[in-house]
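batch_manifest entry 22 of 60
target: Wd repeat-containing protein mio
source organism: Limosa lapponica baueri
requested by: lab member K.T.
priority: normal
notes from requester: please return tokens only, no post-processing; we will run our own comparison against the previous entry in this batch. if the run fails, retry once and flag.
--- input ---
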Amino acid sequence: MSGSKPDILWAPHHVDRFVVCDSELSLYHIDSAVSSELKAGSLRLSEETTATLLSINSDTPYMKCVAWYPKYDPECLLAVGQANGRVVLTSLGRDHNSKCKDLIGKEFVPKHARQCNTLAWNPLDSNWLAAGLDKHRADFSVLIWDISSKYAPETAVATEKVRLSAGDPEAGLVVTKPLYELGQNDACLSLCWLPRDQKLLLAGMHRNLAIFDLRNTSQKIFVNTKAVQGVTVDPYFHDRVASFYEGQVAIWDLRKFEKPVLTLTEQPKPLTKVAWCPTRTGLLATLTRDSNIIRLYDMQHTPTPIGDETEPTIIERSVQPCENYIASFAWHPTSQNRMVVVTPNRTMSDFTVFERISLAWSPVTSLMWACGRHLYECTEEGKASSLEKDIATKMRLRALSRYGLDTEQVWRNHLLAGNEDPQLKSLWYTLHYILYFTVLYTLQN
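--- output ---
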């Protein structure tokens, strides 16, 4: 989220729900459009889908970033980072049987107030929540909170919990001591956990990308770069990371972390979001400010490890999901190449990126084409008569039946051709009688 422009997030385990967040959180349910008429309270996203508003949460003002709880929860638990640096756990439902109901309302407060720029849940240990904050000379900018104290490391100081209101049993808890503090006297602009190891955290700091190992927080691996925004890991290739700065996207290989393996130059306008497709290998989507175009980069197969002189093969193209400027977009977690985009005025569109179609003719004249994960074949119907078949098919079938090679009974060649063409039948009978009378005349003389 940047400024007052809305952002959009698909639910990780509710494939028919997404949330739009700007000044408030709005939960939508997406459904198939069974008729041309809209139901009351529904919005049309495309010719096939509509969205219905389920709930609105206005309890967390001054939102700067939002992260959806990675495990299944019927209440749709979210973490909200605020302008004062606080992280609040909130929800978009009221399921009293939810295992996470005791977490709703809990706040995580840094020592010094400053803006929270980014949040990232640990995908394996979902009790760990990392927050990236602006710089403060006397504090750390990367704080890792444990939303459940039972998973706190033995070396960590016990989490201090203070009741917000002693008279209110439903009041949340204020947590003021994080499990880990990283990045002292620095600013953190983006975060993501590395899937290969739940103890590794990649952070886009003020002037470098840093990999923190929570087993030894005094050391870090870092590379100096300006491309520190929007760090995100390719879900199909865990050593490949994308980040951006202004109008450039940097692609990193964590095995060779000295410099980017590839730099993608965008339009003069600054980038606002980059995201890997979760259902397609190596497909990266980028969005620039004040644009209705989403640019796609298809990273083709590259020998590994990536060498100094080798760059991945990139196929670039653009799609236009709507006419208006796009504020944000989100890939669907399971539907192939599908995304929802939102405009600054909260108009939404459901859009599918169609794959490039590759065509190939087979030696036997059947047509093959590939689209996404599907392979299609087009062949002539077997019941079609020889007169209706393509000439290449006719030639092949006649060659297989040894058409034209019967020199003893020449008239039979029309049978080898299918016996469906009267002109061909007349031709071969004519040739048969010509040869017959020629041989007869030669014998008589």
